[in-house]
Design a protein that fits this description.
Helix content is 74%, strand content 0%. The protein has 28 helices and no strands. Helix 14 runs antiparallel to helix 15, helix 16 packs across helix 17 and helix 26 packs antiparallel against helix 27. The radius of gyration is 29 Å and the shape is elongated. One of its GO terms (cellular component) is extracellular exosome. Keywords: Repeat, TPR repeat. InterPro entries: CFAP70, TPR-like_helical_dom_sf, TPR_rpt.
Length: 563
């Protein structure tokens, strides 16, 4: 179904381009004709979205398929939540998972999925509420009972934890993970008799468990339980489990990697790398360890917090480990690694490499994030038609992504002036796209930061084609969250130009005043003061005189407030 929708939308978009974008096809047409084409383009796109995501299932599918449509929605929201978590946007991930429980409030698994993400975001109290709701809906939901048990153990509420572990194995006596967690819990409590009983039950259950190949799966209870504890964010229990594993069978690559993951999750980067180095000593080609080493440097250098108005963080160590993990055979390939590597490559302007990295990521698992990154790379290469196609794919996967709409505006603006003139339908498309971006909450925190914010790029281009209102809206939104003084200076300078064109004198004066206060050179300060002199001449001659006196006295001091 998804492939059909993607092909249909791409085909219609291609037809529009072929019909209305051929060189000379619009030459000499009246403004009314150009507006008609622009409106047709907008209506067609809106109708495609509506038909694909609403009308098509409703008209063609019956009651059984309505259930399928619901499942499709649940799966899509889960995918978008996973994508948001990859970008460490736990708020957005929670929104997507909340939509699932609102749609099907009596599904314990959906409450468990929400609780798991909330745990990893650090909100333990809210996570407990989610797990409590899950076991209220289904008292035999093993994963939620185990999650409760682990959270109670972490909080030293051992009697309550004991109750939940017992309920879990009682609800599913053949559940290997349940018995594995019980073994770990009794070991923590030094309850040897109960530990041995649980271990025996786990072995019995494990003999009956088969993997997809039909073979019996044999794994240590400590390794099994530690993986679940990792999902619940319990470093303490992972440490205990791996200590017991070390005593039982000795050191191993898997043991060291598990500990490395736990300390990475807990942001103990030095301890993380110590265990990953140990794993690499045990297995020189441990590409998983290389990837995790890359993640440790990426997180330690605060790459998730990097923005266009910040200095570039150190990147060589993270890039080196990511490259090594991908180039050692067999390589370790994961979506998170591709996204983070591409983020660095775009920031340091290795554009061709970024485009290739994101292409591999898309081939592995298509996502709006990966298509957005590829569109940004293609835009930086001035390949606007392919960037537009990438953004269309991104919209299919997530039509509420504000960054995607922001980049759609930028690409449309580039296309609108490609022939030296102004192609109005594309300019109109850019206006609609930036409005969608602003409505969707586009700000200055971006998935793939470049040297300028998406809002700033769009504002400058709107300014060039005389769309001053749209430019001002973009600049103001960027100013609402920009942090770097240089970026704030440039945004105010551009906003002042917009306000001049719009004859918005008060806003123009305020923008010039901020430029003067943020100026880092005497020339910039003098330019701001001269602009203030001119701007205040008609409104307040006394104020204009004050600025004139400042200029004559030559009293510039960086950062000093202006009257």
């Amino acid at each position: 179904m998804h492939e059909f929708k993607a092909k249909l939308k791409q085909s219609v978009a291609m037809m529009i381009r072929e019909q209305f974008k051929q060189p000379g096809n619009l030459g000499g047409q009246s403004p009314e004709a150009a507006k008609m084409i622009s409106d047709l383009n907008a209506v067609l796109k809106d109708e495609i979205n509506a038909l694909l995501y609403a009308e098509f299932p409703a008209k063609k599918l019956g009651s059984d398929q309505d259930t399928d449509a619901l499942q499709l929605m649940l799966d899509k929201e889960k995918q978008l939540a996973e994508e948001a978590e990859i970008n460490l946007d736990f708020g957005k991930a929670t929104v997507h998972l909340n939509r699932r429980v609102v749609a099907v409030p009596k599904d314990a698994q959906l409450w468990y999925d929400l609780g798991s993400v909330v745990v990893r975001s650090g909100d333990i109290a809210k996570a407990q509420e989610c797990f409590r709701q899950a076991v209220t809906v289904d008292p035999t939901h093993v994963a939620s009972l185990l999650a409760f048990g682990i959270l109670m153990t972490v909080r030293d509420k051992f009697s309550e934890a004991d109750k939940f572990f017992k309920e879990a194995v009682s609800a599913s006596p053949a559940h290997v993970l349940a018995w594995s967690c019980a073994v770990l819990f009794y070991d923590l409590e030094s309850r040897d008799l109960e530990r041995r009983t649980a271990l025996k039950q786990m072995d019995t259950a494990q003999k009956k468990e088969k993997n997809p190949a039909g073979k019996v799966t044999k794994r240590s209870p400590y390794v099994r339980s530690s993986q679940f504890c990792l999902e619940m964010g319990s470093t303490q229990m992972v440490e205990r489990a791996m200590t017991q594993e070390l005593h039982r069978i000795g050191d191993s690559e898997e043991l060291q990697v598990t500990l490395g993951r736990a300390y990475l999750m807990n942001r103990q980067f030095e301890k993380c790398r110590q265990h990953l180095q140990a794993a690499l000593q045990l297995e020189k080609k441990s590409t998983v360890s290389m990837t995790l080493m890359g993640h440790s440097h990426y997180m330690e250098q605060r790459w998730p917090d990097h923005r266009a108005d910040m200095p570039l963080p150190p990147f060589k160590e993270a890039m080196a480990f990511y490259d090594k993990a991908l180039n050692t055979k067999p390589p370790n390939t994961e979506v998170l690694q591709y996204i983070r590597l591409a983020r660095i490559q775009i920031a340091i302007k290795k554009i061709a490499e970024a485009a290739d990295t994101l292409k591999k990521c898309i081939n592995m698992q298509p996502s709006a994030t990966a298509w957005l990154g590829r569109a940004i790379a293609l835009t930086m290469q001035e390949d606007y038609d392919r960037a537009e196609e990438a953004l269309q794919e991104a919209v299919i996967l997530d039509d509420h992504n504000a960054e995607v709409w922001g980049m759609t505006a930028i690409v449309a603006l580039h296309q609108s002036t490609a022939d030296g003139g102004l192609y109005q339908p594309k300019a109109d498309e850019a206006v609609r796209a930036i409005n969608r971006a602003l409505k969707g909450g586009l700000g200055t925190k971006e998935t793939f930061p470049t040297s300028e914010f998406i809002l700033q790029q769009a504002g400058v281009m709107f300014l060039k084609i005389g769309h001053y209102d749209d430019a001002a809206a973009a600049f103001r939104r960027a100013l609402s969250s920009a942090q770097g003084s240089e970026a704030i200076f440039n945004l105010n300078k551009s906003l002042a130009e917009c306000c001049t064109a719009l004859n918005d004198i008060p806003s123009m004066i305020e923008a010039h005043r901020k430029c003067g206060e943020l100026a880092t050179t005497k020339a910039d300060w003098e330019a701001a003061v001269r602009a203030l002199i001119k701007a205040t001449e008609q409104q307040s001659k006394a104020q204009s005189k004050k600025y004139s006196e400042l200029l004559k006295k030559d009293v510039w001091t960086q950062g000093a407030a202006l009257p």
